[in-house]
Write a structure and sequence with these properties.
- By secondary structure, the chain is an alpha+beta fold.
- The chain folds into two domains: 76 residues; 137 residues.
- Helix content is 38%, strand content 24%.
- It has four helices and eleven strands.
- The strands form three sheets. Strands 1, 4, 5, 8 and 9 form a five-stranded mixed β-sheet that branches. Strands 2-3-6-11 form a four-stranded antiparallel β-sheet.
- Helix 1 runs parallel beside helix 2.
- The longest helix is centred in the N-terminal third of the chain and has 44 residues.
- It is globular and about 50 Å long.
- It starts with a helix and ends with a helix.
Length: 242
């Protein structure tokens, strides 16, 4: 009997041990096992895709940045001053100084002023200004007449310029008139109070267009037979040299 009881006790103990072992194994599997690792793997997998878009978005932003810079540089280049400048310069170069074909200077397209000079003495300066819209040529020398004179005074040949005097609109040409001999050697001296100035054509032998009638000082000017004129000059300095 004692042997039977001992045998049953060992069987019960063995069974209890087996149950405890099974329970212990089950508890161990639930605490760590594949489920936790599976959940962890799932979480990592979910994080990984979300990380990729973030990285992609970042790289997209980076690629857009140079593009923006390039765009900015490009747009900055288009309205550059260098592009605008030539257009303005071209426009300026196309603006004509005068319109139409050049013409001969004469009374209707010029203004003539007569002014006595202190130096050289006994001289008068004629200034002709182009008041028209076209370039005009001052040919030869002025044909002048004081008062009722029938003949025009001779020209000082040495004063002939190398080129025809050309006046753009607004520009002036000059000639000087030697009124009388400085040493008193001239004859038929008298005072004149009116003056007419006529203009020559290309040939230099004929008068063309309208004459000019510049005013003289109220007291008039003294002239004698030594009266002579210079050719038209491009500058005042050249005109008063003679």
């Amino acid at each position: 009997m004692s042997n039977l009881r001992a045998s049953r006790t060992r069987l019960v103990s063995a069974a209890a041990t087996a149950v405890l072992a099974a329970l212990s194994l089950t508890a161990c599997n639930d605490g760590t096992g594949a489920r936790d690792e599976g959940a962890s793997a799932t979480t990592t997998t979910a994080n990984s895709p979300s990380g990729v878009p973030t990285s992609t978005s970042g790289s997209g932003s980076g690629s857009n940045s140079p593009s923006s810079s390039s765009s900015s540089a490009s747009s900055g280049g288009k309205p550059a001053t260098a592009t605008t400048g030539p257009a303005t310069d071209t426009s300026a170069s196309k603006t004509p100084v005068s319109s139409g074909k050049p013409v001969t200077c004469e009374g209707s397209n010029t203004k003539t002023v007569a002014a006595p000079l202190n130096r050289p003495v006994n001289h008068m300066l004629l200034t002709v200004t182009n008041t028209g819209g076209k370039t005009c040529y001052l040919y030869g020398y002025p044909a002048i007449r004081f008062g009722e004179a029938q003949a025009v005074p001779p020209v000082i040949e040495e004063s002939q310029p190398q080129a025809v005097v050309t006046l753009q609109p607004g520009e002036s040409g000059y000639a000087s008139v030697s009124l009388s001999a400085t040493d008193g050697s001239g004859s038929n001296g008298h005072t004149e109070k009116s003056l007419a100035v006529y203009f020559r054509g290309r040939s230099g032998n004929e008068s063309v267009g309208a004459g000019a009638h510049p005013s003289l000082p109220a007291k008039g000017v003294y002239v004698d037979d030594s009266l002579e004129v210079t050719y038209w000059q491009q500058s005042m300095d050249d005109a008063v040299t003679w």
